[in-house]
Specification:
about 350 residues; alpha/beta; 6-stranded parallel sheet; 6-stranded mixed sheet; 8 helices; 14 strands; binds NADP nicotinamide-adenine-dinucleotide phosphate
Length: about 350
């Protein structure tokens, strides 16, 4: 007997990838239900070689569903996730709503799989922010070896991280640059994103950082170790899919770049591509559709003791969202629900 699983936000960027990944990984589902807003009622979405018709989340009864993968943003999640959880369905949520609540596990399966046992407190598990997920996959094996003190990271985040309307804005604005009279004003972003970069993701905090930067610090602490300090600068770039990060890491104990490379080569979820030659590294375009987090440009930082730098790239819709959520569902099934 398999699972009855709902994908909530099935018409969105992340929801569509969830359906793709459930099919690709042959998730043991007896039934997959696609849910979205009422305006999408009947919209067809792909699930492997099948087509599912989207149902209205507002009138859906979660009773009898084992799990629901939510990808609808914090506002509607607040309305619908508690209903699903109360009906006995375990919610695996992609929004930021529950990530920092002490009784909700925040999980990256390669890093803190044991946290899944805590799901039953609320029947909710949180998925981290896309930029955190790929970074902690790389940090964890290095932390286990040499204890990380501090991380300084600059992100290069694709527009798909801001949803499907943001992707349309980059596409239309890029075309509009070339066609007089068809210029497209910023709407999802604060400034033109075509041929530009914007050092601002999510709202500003009192200390001058943005919420996206704060999330990377808070989530790394919750997932890997409270002792790790993270200083992030998060930047939106005119790339459709794939987030990149330039990461500088300081350790308590000595660790060379060569040792780090060997550790990362063995680490789950990581592929090291680090040839010190033109093209010997991975860029966002090349990671699209892949499951792995790619690590390149691993080198010693000669300006600090016990410090290295590296370049970290992953598909934000996959490891940063949908893949991680499906991995959590697999983990929950294997360790806790034990149905299939
Ligand atoms: N994109 C990423 O890299 C990423 C990474 C980590 C986490 N996340 C999180 O994942 C969530 C979804 O992101 P996305 O990029 O997939 O957004 P998106 O492409 O804009 O899609 C949003 C989805 O939510 C549905 N939705 C919105 N309001 C709804 C409501 N009131 N009732 C029912 N359905 C509703 C939409 O349905 P309709 O089509 O019917 O409107 C659509 O399916 C967000 O919380 C985001 O922060 C995204």
């Amino acid at each position: 007997m398999g699972y009855r699983i709902a994908v909530v936000g099935a018409t969105g960027n992340v929801g569509r990838e969830m359906l793709n990944i459930l099919a690709e990984r042959e998730f043991p589902a007896d039934e997959v239900i696609a849910l979205a807003s009422r305006k999408s009622l009947g919209t067809e979405v792909s699930y492997g070689d099948k087509t599912l018709k989207t149902k209205d989340l507002d009138t859906f009864d979660f009773t009898g569903c084992d799990m629901a993968l939510f990808a609808i943003g914090a506002g509607p999640t607040k309305q619908y996730a508690p209903k699903a959880a109360k009906a006995g369905c375990v919610v695996i949520d992609n929004s930021s709503l529950y990530r920092y609540e002490p009784d909700v596990p925040l999980i990256v399966p390669e890093v803190n799989p044991d946290a899944v046992e805590g799901y039953a407190k609320r029947n909710i598990i949180a998925n981290p922010n896309c930029s955190t997920a790929q970074m902690v996959v790389a940090l964890k094996p290095l932390h286990d070896r040499a204890r990380i003190n501090r991380v300084v990271v600059a992100t290069y985040q694709s527009v798909s991280g801001a949803g499907k309307e943001a992707m349309d804005e980059l596409w239309n604005q890029t075309k509009g640059v070339y066609v007089p009279g068809q210029e497209v004003a910023p709407a999802k972003f604060t400034k033109q994103i075509a041929f530009n970069v914007i050092p601002h993701i999510d709202v500003f905090m009192d200390d001058g950082s943005t919420k996206e930067e704060w999330k990377m610090a808070a989530e790394t602490k919750k997932i890997v170790d409270r002792a790790i300090k993270v200083h992030a600068t998060c930047v939106r770039v005119p790339v459709f899919v794939g987030h990149a990060e330039a990461v500088n890491i300081e350790f308590e104990d000595p660790l060379s770049a060569d040792e780090a490379r060997e550790i990362l080569r063995e680490a789950p979820g990581i592929i090291v591509v680090d040839k010190r030659e033109p093209g010997g590294y991975v860029t966002p375009l090349e990671c699209v559709g892949d499951y792995a987090t790619f690590i390149s440009r691993i080198r010693d930082d000669s300006t600090r003791d016990n410090a290295i730098s590296l370049w970290c790239v992953s598909d934000n819709l996959r490891k940063g969202a949908a893949l991680n959520a499906v991995q959590i569902a697999e983990l929950l099934g294997r360790r806790c629900l034990k149905k299939a």
